Amino acid sequence: MNKPKILSFLIAAFFLTQCVPPTEEGLHDVYVDFTNPGIQKLYDLQDRGLTDSLIPYLRHHDATYRYLSALAFASIKDSSAVDGLRLLLYDPFDAVRVSAAYSLGQIGQQSAEESLLKAFDRTDTSGVSRFFNAAIMEAIGKCGNPNLAEKLATISTYTTHDTTLLEGQAWGLYRYALREITTPEGTEKMLGFATGSRYPGSVRFIGANYLSRASTINLEDEDGEIALAIPREDDPRIRMALVIALGKTKSERAANALLYQFNIEKDPRVKVNILRALTNFSYEKVKPVVLQAIEDSDVAIAQMAAEIFIQIGIPEDATVYWQMAKAPGRHWEVAMPLYSAALKYLPAVFEESRNYLNWELRRLYENSPNPYEKAAALRAMANFGWNYRYIRDAAFPSEYLPVRTASVEALASIARMPNFRSYFGGGRRVKRELSDCFRDAIENGDVGMMAVAAEVLRDPKLNFQETFDSLVILENALGKLRLPQEIETYNEIKKTLDYFNGEPQVLPGQPRFTHPIPWKLVTDLKEGTRAVIKTTKGDITLKLLPVYAPGTVANFIELVKDGYYSEKNFHRVVPNFVVQGGCSRGDGYGSLNYAIRSELPYLHYDEEGYVGMASAGNHTESNQFFITHSPTPHLDGNYTIFAKVESGMEVVQQIQVGDVINEIVFTEKK
């Protein structure tokens, strides 16, 4: 699949730092040189979020400054810049106009819709404005009113050779879908894109992701068209999305097509998604292929298969799951979901068996030296609700931070049991005890435990207002948290406090500016420099992308040179989504004593191997990063991309929870 032409254009027009500086006559060309103090100043204004100081740059005589200031608001997302950005929609330079349209979409104010529509070049028959028109269509998908979704879908003048314009139309409909705005016309258009072999691969890719991601569409009658498209599609990135879409049809034909595709499929990522899709079908239909997949040598495939039994298992096979969990050589990431399914579905009348199974899980928890296996055992134990006291007593005081966090997650899972009242004979006493557990979790000062406890306490379905009446505990906890490093926990507790006080939910807080960009690390970076992540599974080589995220790259270099990442774990692995590492605690709640800003230029997560910054909301990043297993375009515009895997993608696919980053080093590519 070719990269979308919009991005190719921007890459060519954006950040030409290695070129010869422009002549006086070329003053208005877009040219970015990070050694230029003026450019650094503009970036510093973006980094500090100084909107009032940035807005005058939108009228700068130099196109480079107009371009960069416009693009800055794609990251800042400040609506006060809308009027200035509107004017740039008529700039003489395409790069400036595209950046203005993109930023208006990022800001998301519906008030920008009219200006975007007026600026759309309907007279462009030669394709001169195709990049700009495409950017407008995508921006409309982010900020336009629902009525425009139908109009966008009914554009029919583009031919299959109008790749850029078709991409813009498709991205616009996809962005609408992420806002849960869809129309029958839009779904029909995207179905045609996704399954039509005459369309460019980049357009099929967007259409397929729409079908897989849109939550408000009905595909019940489209099983035949999607099923036929899957085996003829050469690009696995498109097949990954199509199989999810096919699963949403829930038809017999879809089930048969997915089972057939699983047996012939060569790409492990597509197989993982097929397994996800199979949860839409009857247990007896999918059981044989799931049993087969559990024995796969690829842990991601086997783990996904085991998790299916948690979702759609049956009591009659509970002992089967139990026996499979204990199979010699079974990896714990596969065994624990099987234990979960066994404990969840084992009938209550099998009291002796259930007690023994429960005892087995407790022994696994107590004897494992691996904190991540311990955490998984706790989550498995939550499938037997009466384990709540054991989970509290055994894990709250654990020396391992990931275990402590997992203990509260397990208790939260018990609190959310759909049959809570009947399971616990009314449940009032148990609910009171769980409420006390969550209170203790908040009082003990462990930020991972605090965040999880705060979230479950404000779940409106659980009505913890009846049992948790100590709001002073929340207030005290809020006052003790250190900012910015504990901003995620701070925001969780603040939301819970507001909920209990009956106050409206406000947008999460953002850390104040604390960490200027160390520009020398950017300007000294050589074109051939690569970062090599040395892991327990092998090396992953990254090409850094300072042209898109100079502040983030500089921060990464700084941390690497300080040796920060050495011996850190990959604490989160989601099959066919991401691996995530760099947490100072090892559970996802560990940050540093500063935050950096999100940097969000016009890029798409349309391939595997993008390296992005994990965050608790824009501008809260510091140390944690993730690497994508596959395309993740729903992350576009919200998560900084600062590097791309150049080699070692097979290592990324093998990384499992708990694997260690031995160190990260820099090398020079010859």
What is shown here, in short?
The chain has 670 residues and is of the alpha+beta class. The protein folds into 5 domains: 1-119 and 128-136, Leucine-rich Repeat Variant, CATH 1.25.10.10; 218-281, no CATH class; 282-347, no CATH class; 376-509; 519-668, Cyclophilin-like (Cyclophilin, Beta Barrel). The protein has 32 helices and 8 strands.
Poorly predicted segments: 1-28
What is the CATH superfamily label of the largest domain? Answer: Cyclophilin-like
Gross morphology: globular
Radius of gyration: 26 Å
Strand runs, count: 8
CATH architecture of the largest domain: Beta Barrel
Q: Report the major sheet.
A: 8 strands, antiparallel, barrel
CATH class of the largest domain: Mainly Beta
In DSSP terms, counting alpha (H) and pi (I) runs of 4 or more, how many helices?
32
Describe this structure as you would to a colleague.
Strand 3 and strand 4 form a beta hairpin. It is built from 32 helices and eight strands. The chain has helices at residues 5-13, 37-48, 51-54, 63-76, 82-88, 94-107, 113-119, 130-143, 146-153, 163-178, 184-195, 201-213, 223-232, 236-249, 252-264, 268-277, 283-294, 299-312, 318-325, 332-345, 351-367, 371-381, 388-395, 401-415, 420-423, 428-443, 447-457, 471-480, 487-500, 519-523, 550-561, 649-654, and strands spanning 529-535, 538-544, 568-574, 578-581, 610-613, 625-628, 641-647, 660-668. The two termini are 28 Å apart. The protein is globular and about 80 Å long. The protein folds into five domains: 1-119 and 128-136, Leucine-rich Repeat Variant (Alpha Horseshoe); 218-281, no CATH class; 282-347, no CATH class; 376-509; 519-668, Beta Barrel (Cyclophilin). Helix 2 runs parallel beside helix 4 and helix 22 (371-381) packs parallel to helix 24 (401-415). The longest helix has 17 residues, at 351-367. It has 670 residues and is of the alpha+beta class. It has an eight-stranded antiparallel barrel. Helices cover 53% and strands 7% of the residues.
